[in-house]
Amino acid sequence: MILTDQQILAEIERGNIVIEPFERSCLGTNSYDVHLGRYLATYRDTVLDARRHNQIDTFEIPAEGFVLQPSTLYLGVTEEYTESHAHVPFLEGKSSVGRLGIDIHATAGKGDIGFCNTWTLEISVSMPVRVYHLMPVGQLIYFAVQGNVETFYNRKANAKYNERTVKPVESMMWKNKF
Predict the structure, then answer these.
(1) Partners of residue 56 on adjacent β-strands
(2) Cα distances (Å, whole numbers) of residue 69 to 56, 83, 144
(3) Which of 24, 83, 111, 165 is the most exposed place for a label (fewest CB within 10 A)?
(4) List of residues 6+ apart from 69 with CB closer than 8 A
């Protein structure tokens, strides 16, 4: 079951959902619009290795915007910091962004109960497109769950993305044992 606008507001009042900054005008019928944060990042190497820590270069989006290029993976970040203590958040791209040929995530659209952070975006484009800090990029959808949670994400000893940040975070796959 997806939460409606009234249910999202009620859960914010209860403290089960946190969105900072929160703007009422960004609340849709059953979602909340999120915006592109100030920073983008690209990987330094052209070949990534899942078993090692791949370094990124982070840069600020200039006032005149930044042109994303095809065949490059950009890591972005949401302007909004969020917390979800009782619902599963999903991040989906806005249709207007998709119609510009921008994908905001490759596979990581689902959050976990207990996720408390900004969202790193895995951005790719099908043609060059200029993007701007604070442009709407996605929408958060909250799903109700059944049953009790044994371990919230922010309390997991092996959670790799708990450190609060306003910058994109590179893959931490290298921390897994395989």
Answers:
(1) 43
(2) 17, 32, 37
(3) 24
(4) 125, 128
Radius of gyration of the chain (CA): 16
Flag whether the pTM goes above 0.90.
yes
85-141: pLDDT as tens digits: 999 999 999 999 999 999 999 887 889 999 999 999 999 999 999 999 999 999 999
- Which residues face 27 on adjacent strands? 32
Tokens 């200039």 — which residue?
62
The angle formed by the CA atoms of residues 8, 13 and 15, to the nearest 5 degrees, is 90
Where does residue 5 rank: exposed (0-12), middle (13-18), buried (19+ CB within 10 A)? middle
**What is the spatial distance between Cα 137 and Cα 96, in angstroms, rounded to a whole number?**
8
Query: Could you tell me the CA-to-CA distances from 41 to 20, 126, 159 in Å, in that order?
Result: 22, 18, 22
End-to-end CA distance of the chain: 35
Catalytic residues: 122
Segments in 39-104 forming alpha helices (H):
95-98
Please state, in angstroms and rounded to a whole number, the distance separating the CA atoms of residues 167 and 178. 28
- At 100 the three-state DSSP class reads coil
Q: Token digits for 21? A: 């900054």
